[in-house]
Amino acid sequence: MEKSEEEINEWKEYRRSILEEKSKSDDDFEKYITYISSGALGLTMTFFDKISPLEKSISLWIIATGWIALAITLFVNLLSHYLSSRYNEKTVQDLDSNISYEKLSCNIDRRNNKISILNLASIILLGLGILLILIFSILNLSKHG
């Protein structure tokens, strides 16, 4: 059963709306990862003496590792954003070059997989950084409490 032109146009419009929502979601994801990781990094560094004064703290390596994880999160997220922009440019170049659909699809999938890996790394590093800071805080609050 062949689709009518109206059905094809509706499908294309629906597909376009999904891609627009995905783009918005991707932008929000990168923004929130940046806000959360930079906020956690800034807050814990700024209020370090309120959590546990340096001279009385134990297991400093835990908070230092948490800070490193948050800093790497920011870098990986920035790299993901940069590559996403570059990959969009490459996709436009591919479209302008009139390469085959199969090759275009393969290129897009390969690029999207790299961005997905970087985004997953951001999530894992953010979670690890926050977890380490919480562990440090609990250890030191219970020590001083």
Number of strands: 0
Low-confidence stretches: none
Distance between the termini: 73 Å
Biggest β-sheet strands, sense, barrel: none
What is the residue-mean pLDDT, rounded to a whole number? 86
Q: Over the alpha carbons, how many angstroms does the gyration radius reach? A: 22 Å
Gross geometry: elongated
Number of helices: 4
Q: What's the order of the H and E elements?
A: HHHH
- Which class of secondary structure composition applies to the elements? mainly alpha
Which band does the percent of strand residues land in? under 5%
Overview in brief:
The chain is built from 4 helices and no strands.
Describe the structure.
The chain has 145 residues and is mainly alpha-helical. The chain contains four helices and no strands.
Detail the topology: elements first, then pairings.
Layout: H1 5-46, H2 48-51, H3 60-96, H4 101-144
Which descriptors apply to this entry?
0% strand; 145 residues; elongated; 4 helices; mainly alpha; single chain
